[in-house]
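Problem statement: downstream parser choked on a complex file, so we are re-checking the raw output for the calcium ion run. The parser issue turned out to be on our end (a line-ending mismatch), but while we're here, posting the original submission so the record is complete.
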Amino acid sequence: MDDVEKIIARLQRRCGRERNARIAAEEILEQKSRELFDVNQRLAGLNEQLERQVAERTGALEAERAHALAIAEIDQLTGLKNRHSYKNALGQAVGQAASAGKFFALLFIDLDNFKALNDTYGHGGGDIVLQQVASRLKSLTRARDHVARLGGDEFAILAEIDAETDSPINLADRIVDVFNEPIPIDHRSADCGVSVGFALCPRHSSDAGELQRFADLALYSAKSKGRGNAVQFDVSIGSAHRFRLALAADLASALETAALEIHYQPIVNLLDERPVGMEALLRWRHPDRGWIDPLTVLKTAEECGLFDQVSRKCIELAITQAAPLLITNPSFWLSINLAEQNLRDEQLAAHINDICERLNVVPSQIRFEITEQALIRDIHAAHEIMSELGNRGFRFAIDDFGIGYSNMLTLSRLPFHTIKIDRSFTQEAVDNHETRTIASAMINLGHALGLDVIVEGVETAQQAHMMRELGGHMAQGYHFGRPSKLEPS
Ligand code: C2E
Ligand code: CA
Ligand code: CA
């Protein structure tokens, strides 16, 4: 082979090797691209799966958030809106009243004797009452009204009204009426009255805070009228409140001076008209405003947190001033009024006992008067304090008897010694045959139970005569003597 052929043969071998190498490289490349494609496919699958998971999780989170929001807006026990939701709705309503010229009413509703119901039927019973209240309120309102439970036994309604001069008094009255119907609990039926107070936006105020204060004052006024009342806010309620606020500022200093006085009204034997006892009645001689009546003093004291101090001072003053008279006349007694708030003062019984021991006053010469209404509102607390004081020998009278819707059976289980028949009976009995019959029945009932019966509010000789005819033994009223200071003997 010559040189040229050798060269060609070498070139051909080289070309062959290069072609083989190229083919091998192309195979590797193809293999790698296939692998890359697979990886890509798997990645795309993973990506899709991840996206699906993210979407599912987001959906679940949104559902959870909506559920949490619903819980935050809804009262779990009653299914009504809760306080948080009410606050927002009130803010919106006030805003709409300003921007869109809408009118609405804010009603506050409060149960009259929820605590007593809870004591009688337990918390389970209390829950049933609250659920019933919710469903009755719902049934009386429209879907667009906002009905909320603010907490405990407090409820509120925001109701749109058509015109500035409209009033939701019909709704408020219907609410009071529907609760005249007892609530069934475990085959028993519970009496559960409500009080309603309301204020109007923008008529009374366009400010959420002030509107709530006004509705609250109206509710307070409804409650102080007794159970089952609806009251619309008005300026006089506001000014009475401002008056008490001004008084409150002076009450603390009155406690330090002799401005709080006790006046005494005789209680007489109707047959010979001789005094058998006397009732202590609080008076405040205000330096600028003159005499302030006891109910205003006590309401003011309650509003400024001085209730216990003021009433303890009255009790101490009365026993101290009456002590010489009681000690020298063992059959004579002193009557002292206890208010509903006194029943919850757990230290009161010991305090009273200490005073009597210090002054050598015999407990049986003191009668504590508790109104029928205060008893019904908190029969449990009344029972406690009556047992504690009763065991020490103190006596009790039911005050203002006949106007408080009390249950005779319940009252007969409490250790009363006396009933005081409300003055409305005395004053109507002369002209009204039916009232006379009722008064006579109450006097006989009291005597049949072995109780002293005192007829209150005897203003004329004719009334005294009538009450004597009806069988009354004891009486109290302007005819026999007005409340006055005890003259030092
Ligand atoms: P109450 O316990 O029913 O007292 C009788 C009220 O009737 C007294 O009014 C008395 O002045 C008045 N009154 C007496 N006789 C007659 C009468 O013939 N005709 C008329 N129209 N009224 C007569 P007062 O002193 O204004 O007391 C009002 C209420 O304030 C009392 O009613 C009692 O519930 C309460 N209260 C008075 N002092 C105290 C006190 O020291 N503590 C407490 N917790 N309450 C008191
Ligand atoms: Ca009394
Ligand atoms: Ca009375």
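For whoever reads this later: The chain has three domains: 1-73, 83-233, 243-476.
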